[in-house]
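### Sample
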Amino acid sequence: MSSGRTIVVGITGGIAAYKAVNVVRAFVLRGDSVHVVATPAALRFVGKPTLEAISRNPVHTDLYEGVAEVRHVAIGQSADLIVVAPATANTIAKLAAGLADDLLGNAILASTAPLVIAPAMHTEMWNNAATVANVATLRSRGVIVVGPGVGQLTGSDTGAGRMEEPDTIVAAALVALDAADLSVGRRSDLAGKHVVITAGGTREPLDPVRFLGNRSSGKQGVALAQAALARGARVTLISANLEVAAPASADVRLVGTALELQAAVTDAAAGADAVIMAAAVADYRPAAVRADKIKKDDTGDTLLLELIRNPDILAGLAAAGQPGQVLIGFAAETEPDADRLLALGRTKMARKGCDFLVLNRVGWTEGFASDRNEITVLDRSGDIVCEASGTKMSVAGRILDLIA
Ligand code: C5P
């Protein structure tokens, strides 16, 4: 399954480049989309076909290819994380100086993603005053330096300078990614605030064993809860049949149906600073819940279900209108046309009366189960106040920026 993240792996010209293949492979097996940018020197150590086969993407090397699509900038901007493994002394020096004389240098300068480097060189080069100063400069800018390890080097000698093992590099990179995800936006800017978030999808029982439900996984709502907690908020998470774990430090209230969600959110919303209705709430529920399992023998070839409208919880909260409370609704639509999608969002905003409406497209493959999301946020007057795409965690950060 796709993680929804784009990872750029920069490979530079050291013998450890052959081990970088395993770094690429580990990210691919985790479901990340991996784009290798190799320096020309790296390709003298490991073949482009190997890197393309393992990364499942074209490998780029040349600054002067793909100029029309401004590739050197696009690669950097698309990255959720950049890992340079191995990072030679020469590459480290260029990074410290901010040089961009190759595709990798350009991609790194054009990126705001976390940068993880795994140095690999001989001990003397690692201990050289120039390298020591360059590494210190990079660390001071927040670059994460993994290793090098101490041990057998390329020749018969041993010492500091071995590139860290691929799984150690990948583990450090994942920590960097999580930290970056959680710190999207400003830290502690929700301290002392109470944020209520609904997540998941309601299930409306038909009989003791069946329900009418939807495909919402709850990932976006849980990401909002994690991001709000990371920014210092007290979070009440109204959890409707989540497919993912709720954060341990949230106050979690479990609900099943729309009516249960309504009772829980109405209770929690009293005095809350913000309410975010990320849950997919069933618009209708069965008029009667059968006490026994519905049987084919009793119903024949067709079965008609009578459904009744559920209350619109979001519109109800908006009508109740607690002063100073920020109310955010979601609108998941299947409309493929961007203009018509926006028009639907504006109509819905007028009907719901919330402060912000987060518009996103859903379908058989988009939206629900994915780790990524693409949103447009409208304010009360229907104006676009935010457009964001990326991991659900990074999108959560942008939504919380509106509250903060
Ligand atoms: O009307 P629609 O279902 O498209 O609206 C979606 C938004 O309204 C979501 O924020 C959802 O949580 C909320 N909603 C609600 N009560 C309903 C249906 C949806 O609060 N019965």
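The chain has a mean pLDDT of 91. This sample (Coenzyme A biosynthesis bifunctional protein CoaBC) is used throughout the tutorial notebook.
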